[in-house]
Amino acid sequence: MSCSLLEFCRLQELKTVRDYLFQSQKNEPVEEKNQTENDVSWETAEWESAWDSGENKEEETTSATKVEEEPTEQRAPWLQDCVVSLSPCSDLLVVAREQKAVFLSAKWRTDDGGREEMTLAVSWTGTLSTDEGSSTGRPDWTCVVVGFNTGYVRFYTENGVLLLAQLLHEDPVLRLKCRTYEIPRHPGVTEQHEELSILYPASMVTIDGFSLFQSLRACKNQVARAAAAGSDVIQPPPLAYKKWGLQDMDAIVDHCSVDEERFYPRGVSCFSQGKPPAMSQYVTVGGGPYTGFYYAVEGSSQPLLSHVALAIHHLICLLLTFFVCFSLFPHSGWLGWNKHKNEEEAVQKQKPKVEPATPLTIRFGLPDSRRHGESICLSPCNTLAGVTDDFGRVTLLDLARGVAIRMWKGYRDAQLGWLQVPEERVDRELSPSASHPRRHALFLVIYAPRRGILEVWGMQHGPRVGAFTVGKHCRLLYAGYRLMGVNSVTSKGWQLHTQQVCLLDPITGALRTVNIPFHLALSDKKSERAKDMHLLKKLTTLLRSREVEPDPDEVDPALQQLCSSQLKLLQLYSDIQQLHSAAVTETCPENEESLEGIEEELSRIGPTLQRYAQLTTRPSVSFAQDSPNSLLPAQAFLSQMECTEGEELRVIRGSETQWNQLGNFMFWGCLCGKSPLHKMCDTLQQAGISPQQLLSLLLSVWLQREKEVLQKPEETVKNLHTLLIALSNMKGAVEDSWDPQSISPWWQQVRTTCIQSHNAAAALLAAFVAHRATKASITSRADSKFQSEWEAVSLELEQWLVCVRQLEDVLVLQTLLLVPPPQGATGGAAPQCSIKTLLEGGTGGIADSISKWVFRHNLAPERLKEILQKKEEADEKLEQKSGEGKEPEEGNQEDTDRTAELLVAVCQRFPHSLSPDLLSAHCCWEYVEGQYLWCAVEHLKLVSSPHIQLGISAMMWSTFIVKRFSAAAYLMEKDVGMGDKAVTSFLGCCVQLLQILMEADSAVEEVSAPELSMEEAWCGAEGPASLAEMALEQRGVHYPLVQHHCLVASLLHAAMTFSLKVKPLSLFDSKGKNAFFRDLTTIQLMPSGDMDPCLVSIRQEFLLRVLTAWVQAINDPSISASGNTSPSPPSNGPKADWWPSLCLELGSLLQVNPDILRRHLVCELYSQGLDPRAEEAREHVMLEVEDKDVLGSQLLVLTGQRLSYCLLHSQSQTQSAMELLARLPPTLCTWIKAMDPSELRCPLVPLSQTSRLVGRLVEILPENHAQYSLALHLLEAVEALSAEG
């Protein structure tokens, strides 16, 4: 039972209503209407165009008389220009426009079929009537509250008699909202007070419902007495109200008033009294903020409504229905109805005093500068509210928390309403919590006029439970309140029917309400039971409403056929159960010949099957109801079988689980050898099930229960062979006209199932069996035809040979992929592969699978290279085991060796797809996708083909590297998403990648491109191009541009390694900067000629700083030599020996004098006290120094600084040293005193090293050098000091 849209009333005299409201347009002269085609008589051409629905453009300019004769269906949109409101009891409808209003009252009439139906007919059109009536069981009278643009609020009866008028504020009235009494559904919930709230542009007035009820009752009595006396003078009492000035919102268009409660609102500190204050919550919508929450603290608590009810119990007979019409903006004082214009002016002159508003600041809101609210609709439980806005969104607010909890989009100009559905008594009696109060379900009704759809949504996060296609000009009428004057005493036993939400269709005049069953709000198993109870109740009602005279002799043929088919299915179910419980006495000697050689095949693949079984039988969690050994219920069996017209049975293919359960029920006992095979096949054949469906069920259970099959492979294989032969001998399995030289659909079905299966071992065993069964069938057919001893050759057997070969390859590959990764490696489930997935993966699918396995196992590139070398050795000598090699870091040695053997076996089965170059290329790509760039570069180095290496490097650079590399260059001192160590490693990998790219580009012309090929069994691969194919299709790079990027990468790497503050791009001119980060295949304008001396000076300074930092790093024990804290290898650390040579190479590219770099390096080594390293560098560097005089002078100064420290500044000065200083020549002594040893980084150096340095100085300096004699004096002084020391 679903929700429905029920019509309960229909409007009459719509034409009369329309003519009265639009009388001013109707009475205009015909001549003015006929002036032009588009100059219509009414206010706008769009209005009449919408009215006529565009069906006949010529009728737009016809006379008013003809317009009156148009059917109602063509004039429906006129209602959109009117204000429409319906009373909660649905007994009064008001339609108003500008200065006119029409009241339609409820009437009952009898239709042609004799049934009574409710209609709404015109009861008043603006002319006063003194007739007043009352009907028993209905509200005595209805009050209409009207807000005016002058600020007045007036109260009228249903006959247009003015009861009360009061000026509350001097701004136009925007909205009128009413709140009436609601019975508390739960203990502890406060009663809802009655209240009328009036919204103005910047303020709000609230009137207590109890005082308003008394005032209106008194006014009505005065009007009745005045009418009886023939007078129209009454003295209405003033209304007691509260006015709040709503602040901190730019614009307010709608509001809702939540009932008074005692609570601490958000942002309010605790009060001193023991209980929280009574506060009223007001929620407004508009702009700036989009939604505002106001809290008004009451001065004193309201009296309990139950106490008030006892005092006014005698007044409750006059029940009052509040009917609120939204704001009407008259221009000439309509609804004064008995007053002339001069009387209205007199009233205006006597305008009463307006009380000022009490300021009320906003507590909090939902700010959204671009969104403006249009309306808000409060739920009956006062906890939720729906808000519409100008973005076409409907937002659900939680008023207690002040947050938006749900939003719908695509509902522009939406109209909202709420439905509160109580739980039915039948459901409550069956509920275990029947003693608890009845539950209520809350639904939100959304009418989207632009889409012409009415939707019902469950709260708060429920689904859409109903949708109805309605017209685009309907009006959703939702009052949101009930009767006024009801309290806890008088509400008992009161069952007045009210409609919560009504939809008015102006085309048909129908008023419809939404009927929603309670069970649609349930989301658990109780929902099904509740739905069944609804259906049972509906069926019972339907049967009682009809008089049925059953004829026992008449039997429905369809029912008889259904019963017959069900009996047949139940008999088959019973026969299968009996066969499973019967003893097995069958023997099949005739099938043993076709199984010859199966034992050899099983023994050949036995080790692989054993390893595969070990890897697939890992502990896992399963549930008893999901066990394949559970008995199939008869109900499930019947739901999956059906009888066709030809008395045959057909299996209904449901879910995979249901299909496997049915296969287990039929064939698993036979495969285990516990049930008679031939009897089972005969029983199924006699039942009329097609052999194709039986074959599908057999293969599904065989593949599903792979673990049990591998426990006893010999026995299960024989049973599968017997079943397969029996099924193939059935009628309709293998066609009698089948030519062995063509493909058989029967065996193709088996082959397709094996190709698509991810259970490699079970699929291979099934292929073995099917291959031999096919071969036996073809041989028997050939013998019967030709009586020849020649072996039959057919296309079918060739297909099976290829399939078996592919399945063997898949089994070995799947076994390798099932090997779990070592602890701590990258996790993830093992991928499942099949022949189909590998073929669809293209020519590189196999290498891609292995590369993912290498990545999951974190297999080092050196280890992979070692295993591939073992594979080459195994190819040369297959019997030799490849167990030698380095001991792995993780896991057991034996398991690792077995894993390596598996990888070697896979590579042997795929010699072309898993060649070292292809596998290394795929591993490189897998690691770079996983953000392990260093490992990717190491794998890239293993690629021997420069063509593949060049393509992979270019693809890596353009896809993964260049954007991050440019970010590191531009934002060296800012965050680029990585830490300093990660940036250093990344830049080092960039340098290596660009160096590989340059080397590969240089070697491409010397080596021919490799030819890619596939294994013969896998030549049918179709899919995306392999990585190697894409690499070979890459365009060649521009070598100078690559070198330019390698240069800046080296500078960045050096700056990050030694923590040098530098702006790397400032080391290049404008041409060099423009060439950066361009496509490496394009030709760019590169720097040429001599550089600016200032730029060269900056470059030289940077390289000198790099050399200085390297010398400091090699002598700093705090810096690890291997760089263990960095993901980079040891050779890339700050102590790497290649930094000096790199600086010299960079200097030649940056036009820096290399002689300056060499001299600086030697001097820095001696200054650091690293004389042995300096002597090693001296043998290589000094031989290349061009200006040795300058180097000698620099070393002479360094030697003088050492002697100055030893003789003058050392704390361990001796008397012999002072005597030696006195004996030195005055010139030498003065020179030594002028030296500053603080410039030395390590001044305390053994005298033996200084003596060797001075001796080397004498050799370097020529005899005619100005400081040669000074060097000789230094040599004598050092030797003397060494002798005395």
Question: What does this molecule look like?
Answer:
Its main location: cytoplasm. One of its GO terms (molecular function) is GTPase activator activity. Residues 54-73 have a biased composition (Basic and acidic residues). Residues 78-477 form the Rab3-GAP regulatory subunit N-terminal domain. The chain is α+β, with helices and mostly antiparallel strands. The protein has an eight-stranded mixed sheet with strand order 2-3-4-5-1-30-29-27, covered by helices on one side. A hairpin with a 5-residue loop joins strand 4 and strand 5 (116-124). Helix 17 packs antiparallel against helix 19 (713-728). The protein starts with a strand and ends with a helix. 35% of the residues are buried. The model is unreliable at 28-76, 126-137, 264-274, 300-348, 427-434, 786-791, 878-892 and 1121-1130 (pLDDT under 50).
